[in-house]
């Protein structure tokens, strides 16, 4: 059996509530400590798991009995926390996006190499079972060469309860950083990783939410394969209408008349302070009962459609539909593992040296480069060429 990896958790908000089951259920992981700036989260976590919870992430990183840090702190703090963990000799699992600018991302890549430690960037929806199965079909060559990839997602993201940094592009907020990172990761994962260029337009349609609420992106790979990524978080049309009523984590979307635009309407009635309190109450760790439950179907991060020379592929509720020349084939996929289970498995395999990971710090920097290129292309209304892309093979 591989050596046990003792993991400490930095940040006890939404990301940790989504990841925690996967960390706790992996036989090679032992969660030994946590940290949060909020006392109520520390007390609840320590009470549930009988492990120490600290107010200071510096102290967490300095613990001798910790091998790795899961960094689930706000995006604008990733650089400081990742570098601190690496300097203390810890491996790192960090939420996306890796950083908010390329120079800082390069520092993280260089530090990982200098200290000889693993950095894995996840969760992203490229860990979803249907996306990974799509990639397997594409790579098998059974449908001929890959030609197009499309990722379209419409949600209420912009109007869910937010703290101010989530609505500040400079701090890594807005849909291009927070949700586009998923789309660009999926597209790069399916297409082999190495994009050539980006042409994009972004939307800021509500002055009360002063960040990107939408984007339309055309991406081209070095081999000529093209892709589009469309996202709107303005809480009107939802792409669950195109995905069998199934949402991001495999759960069925609410089916009720009064639900339409509910987050958008509620946001109009809240002050910034009230909204921040609501977000922290919803996001913060309270009890194990609030951890993410696996949905009854496969996850749908909007509509993903892949076109090859001799067939198209899209998700079905239980797996994939493959549209071949003479018939439509449904491929059912097992639902025994969640996307977060796969994140943890890749991290464990990378630390133990049993696999060559995909979602490394360099991979995360390449996805960040796409996010930044989208923002720059929209600003300049020009095609932006990319320079830090990473191929999967």
TrEMBL record:
Pfam families: GFO_IDH_MocA (PF01408), GFO_IDH_MocA_C3 (PF22725). Residues 5-123 form the Gfo/Idh/MocA-like oxidoreductase N-terminal domain. InterPro entries: Gfo/Idh/MocA-like_OxRdtase_N, Gfo/Idh/MocA_oxidrdct_glycsds, GFO_IDH_MocA-like_dom, NAD(P)-bd_dom_sf. Residues 131-238 form the GFO/IDH/MocA-like oxidoreductase domain. The keyword Oxidoreductase applies. The keyword NAD does not apply. Keywords: Oxidoreductase. PANTHER family: BCDNA.GH03377 (PTHR43818). This is Gfo/Idh/MocA family oxidoreductase. It comes from Alicyclobacillus fastidiosus. The lineage of its organism: Bacteria, Bacillati, Bacillota, Bacilli, Bacillales.
């Amino acid at each position: 059996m591989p050596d046990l990896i003792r993991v400490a958790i930095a940040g006890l908000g939404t990301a940790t509530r989504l990841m925690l089951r996967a960390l706790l259920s992996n036989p090679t992981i032992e969660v030994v400590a946590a940290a949060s700036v909020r006392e109520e989260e520390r007390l609840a976590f320590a009470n549930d798991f009988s492990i120490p919870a600290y107010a200071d992430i510096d102290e967490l990183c300095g613990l001798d009995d910790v091998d790795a840090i899961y960094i689930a702190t706000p995006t604008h703090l990733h650089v400081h926390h990742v570098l601190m963990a690496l300097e203390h000799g810890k491996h790192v699992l960090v939420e996306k996006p890796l950083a908010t600018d390329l120079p800082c991302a390069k520092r993280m890549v260089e530090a990982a190499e200098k200290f000889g430690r693993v950095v894995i960037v996840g969760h992203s929806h490229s860990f979803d079972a249907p996306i990974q199965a799509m990639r397997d079909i594409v790579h098998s060559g059974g449908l001929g060469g890959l030609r197009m990839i499309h990722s379209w997602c419409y949600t209420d993201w912009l109007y869910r309860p937010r703290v101010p940094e989530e609505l500040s592009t400079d701090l890594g907020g807005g849909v291009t950083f927070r949700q586009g990172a998923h789309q660009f990761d999926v597209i790069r994962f399916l297409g082999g990783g190495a994009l050539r260029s980006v042409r994009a337009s972004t939307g800021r349609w509500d002055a009360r939410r002063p960040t990107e609420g939408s984007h339309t992106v055309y991406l081209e790979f070095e081999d000529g394969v093209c892709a589009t990524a469309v996202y709107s978080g303005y809480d009107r049309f939802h792409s669950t209408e195109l995905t069998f009523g199934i949402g991001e984590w495999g759960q069925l979307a609410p089916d009720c008349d009064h639900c339409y635009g509910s987050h958008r309407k509620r946001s109009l009635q809240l002050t910034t302070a009230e909204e921040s309190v609501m977000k922290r109450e919803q996001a913060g760790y309270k009890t194990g009962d609030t951890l993410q439950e696996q949905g009854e179907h496969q996850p749908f991060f909007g509509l993903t459609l892949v076109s090859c020379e001799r067939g198209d592929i899209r998700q079905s509720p239980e797996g994939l539909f493959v549209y071949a020349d003479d018939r439509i084939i449904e491929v059912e996929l097992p639902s025994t593992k969640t996307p977060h289970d796969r994140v943890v498995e890749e991290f464990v395999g990378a630390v133990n040296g049993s696999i060559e990971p995909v979602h490394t710090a360099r991979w995360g920097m390449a996805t960040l480069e796409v996010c930044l290129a989208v923002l720059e292309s929209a600003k300049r209304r020009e095609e932006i060429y990319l320079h830090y892309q990473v191929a999967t093979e």
